[in-house]
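Hi F.,

I've been meaning to write this up properly since the lab meeting, where we talked about keeping a consistent format for the predictions we share between groups. The idea is simple: the sequence comes first, exactly as it goes in, then the C-alpha cells exactly as they come out, then a line or two of notes. No screenshots and no reformatting. I'm using this chain as the first example so we have something concrete to point to.
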Amino acid sequence: MASTVTSRRKQLGNELRHARNAAKLTQQQVAEFLGCTQGKVNKIESGAVGVKLGDVRSMLNAFGINGDEAETLMNLARAAAGQRGHWSGYRSVVPHWFRTFTDLEPAAAEILTWHGERIPGPLQSEHYMLKQFTEAGATDVTSLVRNRLDRKAVFDQQQPPYYRFIISEAALRRAPGGMAPAVMLDQVEHLLLLDRRPRVYVHVLPFDAKLASVPNDFTIMRFPDRTRDFVYIEHSAGGLYLDDSKDFQIFVDSWDRLRGAAMERGETRQFLAELAEHYRAQMNA
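Output, unedited:
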C-alpha cells in the first residue's frame, strides 16, 4: 500500500475491509446499515473518500469488534480524519506519511526492524538526536526531539510490543556530521541501558557477517488482533506500507537471514561495552 497523502485513509479502509470480510458481510449490507450506497462503502474501503468517526464506530459494532481492537481502529480513524488535536503542537513535525506508523506502533504485538546506516529513532539517545537534527539543518529541533522522546513511551506501556532491533556495525561507527566520540559514547551507553528493558532486543550485525548482501532499512509490524500486519520501508520522499502476503513473507525471510548472521544478545552487549571503551579512549586522547 503506497504511502501518499491518503496513506492513513488507505490503511483504515484496508482494515475495515478485512474486518467486514471476517464478519462475513457484503458491502451492500454495510451500506444498508449506514444508510448510504454500496459505492460509497467501496470508496471508503479503497481509501478514496474519508469516513466519519461515528460511521466507523457503527461499522465496528456491526462487525462485532470491541475493546482494545476497536480503540486501535478508532485511533487510526482519527488519524485518517486529520483531527488537529491528535497531530498538533510538537507532534505536527512528524511527516504525514509516517503518522500511520507512529499511530499503530503502540498497538503492535511484535516489531522487527533493520537499520544499516543509522540508529533507529526509538533507540537514539537525546545527544545523538540533537546532533542529527542540527547537522540536518532542522529549523525546529526542540519539537523534533520532543516527538522522538515521546515515541519512547512505547517501551513503558503495561504490555509493550516485543521490539527486536538489528543494527549494522556501520550505524555504530558513523556519527551524525562526522567523527563525534562524545555523541557515540553517549549513544552506545544508552543502547546498553535500553537492552536491559523487558521486550527490547538489540543485535549488532558486524562487518564480517556472512551475508551475500544487506537490504535497505525496513520494519515489520505484527498485531495481536485482525489489524493487517505490514512492512514499512522509508525513503527520501516518503514511505511505503506493504501488506500483501507474498511481499510480507519476503521481508520476514530477509529479517530471518539478518538475524541468523547477527550477534546474539550477550555478544552484542560485549561488543557495545568494548565500543564504549573505544570512544572513551578517543575522548581522552
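Notes:
Confidence is low (pLDDT under 50) at residues 1-6.
The beta strands are 110-115, 162-168, 200-205, 218-222, 230-235, 238-242.

If this format works for you, I'll send the rest the same way.

G.
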